[in-house]
Amino acid sequence: MVPYVNIHTHRPTGRGIELRTAGVHPWQADLLKVEALAARLDDPEAASRSDGPQAIGEIGLDYACAVDREVQLEVLKAQLGLARRLGLPVVLHCVRAFEPLMRELAACEPRAVIFHGFIGSREQARQALRRGYCLSFGPRTFASPKSLDALSEVPIGQLFLETDDDPATIESIYERVAAQRGIGLEELKRATRENYERIFGEQHG
């Protein structure tokens, strides 16, 4: 039976595939925290652990929060550089900062990019997809008509699903997205598993 892939959750269940990440969120942007993260990820013993981080995340920009934007940018740049150096994908948080975030990605592009909890417009989705990035959708998607529009256009080969910090089950998210897309549940599960394997390969352990 194909397992469910939950690409971003703050409430791990131990069921299915739940991505392991480490990063400095824009709400807590601080270069010293990035230095500590880099030291941890550079440690040979940590790097060899099978339960270590598979991606740098969630990182990004949030221009709706009170954290200084220049500090957020510096922290983002440092973490994109770290991801590039370590060959790790990134999981992105983006609120009201799509264009500046896309510029920073172009300047230091990681091995793979996943926009988590995507709530942007159809045109923003198209821009990200043209660059080969993946988009992940979760519970908030269903309250946003523009996010549902974007979801309808995402190629299944660039799609992920998540629960984020919501109590909803990943199974319920898959059921709703499968119905929204007009595809079978097992087809959706196979596609997200294939996307996961393509990006993370043997990292899942």
Structure in words:
The protein has 8 helices and 8 strands; from the N terminus they run E-E-E-H-H-E-H-E-H-E-H-E-H-E-H-H. The chain has 205 residues and is α/β, with parallel strands linked by helices. It has one domain: TIM Barrel. Helix 1 (31-42) runs parallel beside helix 3 and helix 5 packs parallel to helix 6. The two termini are 18 Å apart. The mean pLDDT is 94.
Topology of helices and strands:
Blueprint: E1 5-6, E2 17-18, E3 21-22, H1 31-42, H2 44-47, E4 55-62, H3 69-86, E5 90-95, H4 98-107, E6 113-115, H5 122-130, E7 134-137, H6 145-153, E8 159-161, H7 170-181, H8 185-200
Parallel strand pairs: 1-2, 3-4, 4-5, 5-6, 6-7, 7-8
Key features?
six-stranded parallel β-sheet, globular, alpha/beta, 8 helices, two-stranded parallel sheet
C-alpha termini separation: 18 Å
Mean pLDDT: 94
- Beta-strand fraction estimate: 5-15%
Biggest β-sheet strands, sense, barrel: 6 strands, parallel
For this structure, the CATH topology is TIM Barrel
CATH architecture: Alpha-Beta Barrel
Which sequence of strands runs across the widest sheet?
A: 3-4-5-6-7-8
Give the helix level as a range of percent. 40-55%
Secondary-structure element pattern, one letter each: EEEHHEHEHEHEHEHH
Query: For the record, what CATH class applies?
Result: Alpha Beta
Count of the domains = 1
Number of helices: 8
- Pairing-aware structural class of the strands and helices? alpha/beta
Please give the radius of gyration in angstroms: 16 Å
CATH superfamily descriptor? Metal-dependent hydrolases
Which term fits the overall shape? globular
Q: Low-confidence parts lasting 5 or more residues at pLDDT below 50?
A: none
Q: List how many beta strands DSSP finds.
A: 8
